[in-house]
Amino acid sequence: MKTIQVIALALALGTAAAAHAEQPLQRTDLVKNDIDVAGHEAVQVRVDFAPGVLAPKHSHPGEEIAFVIEGTLEYQLEGREPVTLKAGQSLFIPSGTVHSAKNVGNGKASELATYIVRKGEPLVVPAK
Q1: Which residues form the signal peptide (predicted)?
Q2: Which residues contact 16 (CB under 8 A, 6 or more apart)?
Q3: Dihedral of alpha carbons 53, 66, 40, 62, sign
């Protein structure tokens, strides 16, 4: 009986992993916590990009620090030249700045996004 349960669990986990891998843009919330600045919070998110995937233009209700964990991402901040970052590099994005990010490498790319934002507002605001 235990062998059947182990096989069923392995199949379920394999299916869940495959479903996760098929998503072109995957956001995973890691930390969300109040900070000492009244009305603000810190939020940390991992964002995984499939090859060629674009996170369309958007902004945040606070500052973002984007750290590239793996791969190569091109960031386009409104009013600036594009910036291409590889694993180990980071970028500061000022509050309310409209920007996009695209995986311009051959494989998966991932970033660790750390935000200091106004509490109670949507984290991602699509650009108009």
Answers
A1: 1-21
A2: none
A3: negative
> Pick from 75, 74, 72: which is nearest to 97 by CA?
75
pLDDT tens for each residue of 44-53: 999 999 999 9
pTM score above 0.70: yes
Domains of the chain with bracketed CATH? 24-126 (2.60.120.10)
Is residue 111 within 8 Å of residue 101, measured between CB atoms?
Answer: yes
Q: CB of 95 within 8 A of CB of 115?
A: no
In the numeric block, the tokens 């750390």 are attached to: 114
d(CA 103, CA 28): 17
Instruction: Write out the DSSP string of 11-29.
Output: HHHHHHHHHHHH-SEEEEE
